[in-house]
Amino acid sequence: MTRKLLFAAFFSVAATGLHADVIAPDDVAANEYGEVEVSLTGVSGDPARGEEVMTNRGLGNCIACHQVTALDDYPFHGEVGPTLDGAADRWTEAALRGMLVNADNIFPDSAMPSFYRVSGFVRPGNGYTGRAAEGPLEPILSAQQVEDVVAYLLTLTE
Ligand code: HEC
Fold first, then answer.
1. pLDDT digit string (tens) for 52-90?
2. Which of 42, 86, 97, 120 has the fewest beta carbons closer than 10 A?
């Protein structure tokens, strides 16, 4: 094999390795308790990236609704939802993944957004125009961002 071919072969293996295991939003399976036990990506979450997602308004924006003492450096914590201090003592990894993917899994009729869901709800636009948005919706967070947030939440022990 030439060097170029070897390189190409390496790349295609690396690329499939990255994507093969990502579970699409409509394919995520929750158990009867609403828990999602299997990682969405098979790649361990990164708590530092999870912190970024939690505090970034364009991403999870979790602190708009939740107080988190460990994130006190970031301004404007909301109180729509409960504090997340000690969340890792109250919830399993599978339950946290389940509620992030689809809040209805754990909290029916919650004000909490579903971060990895693209169907089964009233589409944005419906309430105002009577017409649903066209085409597939993107989830609010990527599969890996959900895993990163789960990893961050698991650091919140008391
Ligand atoms: C629009 C407000 C809102 C946003 C944004 C939001 N949540 Fe929530 N969250 C809630 C509410 C309300 C509850 C309480 C559950 C219910 O509906 O009974 C909740 C519950 C939770 C719980 C369980 C808390 C406990 O210990 O009882 C966790 C964990 C959680 N949210 C994590 C997150 C994370 C992580 C994000 C960002 C990715 C997020 N939430 C974004 C409103 C929000």
1. 999 998 999 999 999 999 999 998 899 999 999 999 999
2. 120
- DSSP code per residue over 40-98: SSSS---HHHHHHHHH-TTTT-GGGT---GGGTTSS----SS---TTHHHHS-HHHHHH
Rounded distance from Cα 81 to ligand 1 centre (Å): 5
Q: How many angstroms is it from 65 CA to the middle of ligand 1?
A: 7
- Mean pLDDT score of the chain, rounded to an integer? 86
Q: Which residue positions in the chain have pLDDT lower than 50?
A: 1, 6-17
Contact 62 CB / ligand 1 (< 6 Å):
yes
